[in-house]
């Protein structure tokens, strides 16, 4: 049996009939989703909050919210009741409007589904019921699931989705440009990053320029690192500075606080022969640059020549040659576990579980990061993929929209929640 690579929550979504689409990722992904729902005979409405939303959803069953944020709850309740909405779908559950929508869904007892970047990468995006990241119900599901599955090969075989960075950049520039042009139509819109659209557009353009520069500079630094310090460095995965993963799902006020903590601990406890490599997040490329800060910290704590900083390098190769990964709660941690590299998560992460990640303090991690339990990781990944992942990309192809099959999905849903016998479970995985 070929895996459909569809989150079990799609099965639940397809039981609904009248769907309200809130804000999606920049670009046309929610337009694709709307057309897909329409193909499956579902009634949908798409809410636009700014000109960028409207531009990418032209031709859909659109609703336009033009009021103050404080008035959104009443407006939303009115339209849900008027149009008999039985489910809401959004991208990112920490945006201002989506937090309100989540609260309304609980009050009115209707389903609330969330898209997010993929926990497992590449070739996946996330789709869950009620919330994502630390708001996800996955840990409860995982605790309840059957842990008697033997050590089988990973069952998922996603299709390549070919994401395009150029498509992302074009979508972002177009989104922010239309936001500015149509400000008079949506005068009260509040963006989750609290940045003016003209400034956002500048950051995205700068990100493209920096990517071109980094391609040469980082390649040289990366080659030098691999040649001289293989298996003698730890990788620090930095995250987008104003992402909800940092602001909501961690105790850090700023990513710079995390950087300070890591450098100070490393200087105090790590062997003097070891190095520290900070990997900048590509989606934060245009917003932040920590080069000067790291040079100052390296000088202050006697780490000159042992602290490295790069952005546009091949992450799997960087991880494979490292001793372990330090992160707040980046999904890079899951990639590291996949490559058998120890991980310590200093924030609240969906994968920060006993037997999976390092459960001690950062000072101890430098001395003895331990080993990854491969059997436990296989069980974790299998459950995570089947619980929350869709084979697709927001700026690439979306095979899951084409491959959806109700009967096969129901079979896998039953398997995941323990609906089959052990013999049937083994047969499904082997097929």
What does this structure look like?
With 431 residues, the chain is an alpha/beta fold. The protein is built from 18 helices and twelve strands. It has a seven-stranded mixed β-sheet. The termini are close together.
Quick rundown:
This protein is α/β, with parallel strands linked by helices. It is 44% helix and 13% strand.
| Number of alpha- plus pi-helical segments | 18
Give the C-alpha Rg.
22 Å
Indicate the overall shape: globular
Could you state the order of secondary-structure elements as H and E? HEHEHEHEHEEHHHEHHEHEHEHEHHEHHH
What gap, in angstroms, lies between the N and C termini?
5 Å
How does the major sheet shape up?
7 strands, mixed
Keywords:
44% helix, globular, 18 helices, 12 strands, alpha/beta, disordered C terminus, 5-stranded parallel sheet, 431 residues, 7-stranded mixed sheet
What topology does this entry show?
Layout (H helix, E strand, L loop, with lengths): L7 H6 L4 E4 L7 H11 L3 E6 L2 H6 L5 E3 L7 H11 L4 E5 L4 H13 L2 E7 L6 E6 L8 H7 L20 H17 L15 H33 L3 E5 L6 H4 L7 H15 L5 E5 L11 H10 L6 E4 L4 H6 L4 E3 L4 H7 L4 E3 L16 H4 L8 H15 E3 L7 H5 L2 H11 L5 H9 L1
Parallel strand pairs: 1-2, 1-4, 2-3, 4-5, 7-8, 7-10, 8-9, 10-11
Antiparallel strand pairs: 5-6, 6-12
């Amino acid at each position: 049996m070929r895996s459909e690579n569809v989150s079990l929550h799609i099965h639940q979504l397809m039981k609904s009939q009248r769907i309200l689409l809130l804000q999606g990722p920049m670009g046309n992904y929610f337009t694709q989703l709307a057309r897909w729902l329409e193909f499956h005979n579902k009634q949908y409405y798409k809410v636009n909050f700014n000109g960028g939303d409207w531009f990418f959803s032209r031709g859909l069953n659109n609703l336009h919210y033009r009021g103050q944020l404080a008035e959104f709850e009443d407006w939303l309740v009115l339209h849900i009741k008027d149009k008999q909405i039985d489910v809401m779908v959004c991208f990112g559950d920490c945006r201002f409007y989506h937090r309100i929508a989540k609260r309304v869904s609980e009050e009115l007892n209707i389903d609330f589904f969330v898209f997010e970047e993929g926990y497992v990468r590449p070739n996946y995006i996330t789709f869950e019921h009620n919330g994502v990241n630390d708001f996800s119900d996955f840990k409860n599901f995982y605790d309840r699931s059957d842990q008697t599955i033997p050590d089988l090969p990973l069952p998922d075989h996603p299709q390549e989705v070919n994401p395009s960075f150029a498509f992302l950049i074009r979508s972002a520039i177009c989104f922010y440009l239309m936001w500015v042009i149509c400000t008079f139509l949506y005068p009260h819109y509040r963006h989750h990053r609290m940045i003016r659209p003209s400034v956002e557009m500048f950051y995205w353009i700068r990100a493209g320029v920096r990517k071109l520069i980094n391609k040469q500079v980082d390649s040289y630094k990366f080659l030098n690192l691999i040649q001289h310090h293989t298996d003698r460095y730890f990788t620090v995965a930095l995250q987008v500075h104003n992402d909800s993963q940092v602001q909501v799902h961690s105790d850090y006020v700023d990513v710079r606080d995390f950087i300070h903590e890591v450098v100070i601990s490393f200087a105090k406890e790590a062997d003097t022969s070891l190095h520290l490599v900070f990997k900048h997040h590509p989606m934060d490329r245009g917003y932040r640059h920590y080069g000067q800060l790291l040079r100052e910290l390296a000088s202050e704590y006697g780490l000159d020549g042992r602290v490295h900083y790069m952005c546009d390098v091949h992450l799997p190769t960087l991880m494979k040659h490292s001793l372990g990964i330090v992160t707040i709660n980046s999904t890079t941690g899951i990639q590291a576990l996949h490559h058998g590299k120890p991980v310590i998560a200093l924030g609240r992460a969906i994968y920060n579980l006993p037997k999976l990640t390092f459960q001690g303090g950062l000072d101890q991690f430098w001395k003895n990061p331990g080993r990854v339990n491969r059997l436990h990781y296989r069980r974790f990944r299998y459950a995570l993929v089947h619980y929350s992942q869709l084979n697709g990309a927001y700026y690439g192809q979306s095979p899951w929209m084409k491959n959806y099959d109700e009967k096969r999905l129901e079979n896998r849903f039953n398997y995941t929640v323990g609906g089959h016998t052990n013999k049937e479970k083994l047969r499904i995985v082997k097929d």
